[in-house]
Amino acid sequence: MNRILALDVGEKKVGVAVSDPLGYSAQPLTVLPRRPHANFLGAVKALAIEYDVSLLLLGLPRRTTGQKGPEAQRVLALARELTLKLNLKCITWDEWFTTAAAERTLLECGLKRRARRKVIDKTAATLILTGYLVFQQSNNRLDEIKQND
Fold first, then answer.
1. pLDDT at 34 over 80
2. How far is residue 110 CA from its own chain's centroid?
3. What gap in Å lies between CA 22 and CA 20, rounded to an integer?
4. 140 burial type by CB count under 10 A (0-12 exposed, 13-18 middle, 19+ buried)
5. Strand ordering across the sheet containing 26-33
6. pLDDT averaged over the chain?
7. Which domain holds residue 26?
8. Is 2 helix (H, G, I), strand (E, B) or coil?
């Protein structure tokens, strides 16, 4: 299995996390600026090549009502663009409160505000990817159980 690259897409910055080759764990990687757009696309492409990525996973922000707002529409448009320009499968995954969870985790670790700002986006990307990996592992276990019945 190749790795998965997860993106927590914000207006100004994008947090990036990567899975291990077997898809068991997620590690924070970096934070990329969104502008200029061409540089951002190039940076994602370079990371995808460097880490032998087979899937891009973008966090999909939803409103508390579950509806997709303008932020979600921008992420969906970016997912389509990345699929076309990088020739990689790209899916979205619910990022429900991952930035708040990342903030809470970093506070519990005792990081000061300045230090948290530097890592919160890639920490949120790691939480998005971890949620996806746990879901995939659970589905794989259920498939194994069904086959053994």
1. yes
2. 24
3. 6
4. exposed
5. 26-33, 13-19, 3-9, 53-60, 89-94
6. 87
7. 3-148
8. coil
